[in-house]
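Comment thread on ticket #2218

A.B. wrote:
> Attaching the input chain for the structure job we discussed in standup.
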Amino acid sequence: MSETRNHHYVPQGYLRGFAHYPPANPNRAKFLAIDLIRGKSFHTSVRNVAAIRDFNRIEADGHDPNALEDAYSGFESMAAAAIRRVEKSGVFDGDDKIMVLNLIALMATRNPRLRKNWSDFTNRLYRVVLETSVATEERYNNLRKRMEATRPHAKPLAQMPYEDFREFVRSDRYVFETHQNNLIKLELNVFETVLKTLFSRKWVLQIGDDQAGDFVTSDHPVVLSSLRQSHPGVGHGLKETMLLFPLTRKCALMGTFEGDEGVIQAPATLVALANSAVIARAGAQVYAYNESFKYLKHDKMCAGKNLSSDPDCRLRAMDEEEGEADR
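C.D. wrote:
> Ran it. Output below, let me know if you need it in another format.
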């Protein structure tokens, strides 16, 4: 088992499809990272981005803490090889299609944004339950008896006078934290549901032509959007939604429940439009081969070198709730 602590939620093998290899260090894939929160860009190794310490670490008797990380790493290497074959052949079908759709499902359900949404929801839910439990002194006394019997470590709280305890419950001096094991279990449970919807979509492989420029990716590269102006809500199982996934800097996938499957040559405008969607849904960072890429803003073509300073593309910290993968 590995001792890796730097766990990528966007796989390094996938990110290499947007990187170059410096002659001085041909084994180290590097690309341009644009931080949309800090408003700066920098060149870095794919190893240094889209990763959190112990993100996939589990606590289970008889199992190595990195067992899940090792399993993910093996799968992600195979998926990266499948992406390279799709790019080379221009065909999205067969075993490679199965592998890539599994990778998309994994990244749609295993990411910091979704974990934060689940954690925040759980915290709010438990706070409501606790506030209801102390709505009256009689309820509080029943709660205190249960706490003393089943939660010895909570005895100091159980001995607090009712008015003090109720004030504490209504305050912001505590938070309910969801154990990472439970968050990972949620991800694994939702994964199958999302994967089924991906197999139901009709996929178009977009290949940038010679003048189209590069596709970009991000730290949240599964981009789900609505095709209905009257109903902008999105969900992996909802009709009239589009899922965009940049495969490499030269090709991307677009999946809908309607329409036909196929392969198209993507002109510069379509590549720029895809880049705009990726930028808009990024968690914090966008990744590109270099600064020559284009994106659209107000129907105007914009240069990638200006993205970090573009005030319309600056992002907030990761506090957005989206609730996509649980639909």
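A.B. wrote:
> Thanks. Noting for the ticket: Residues 67-89 form the longest helix (23 residues).
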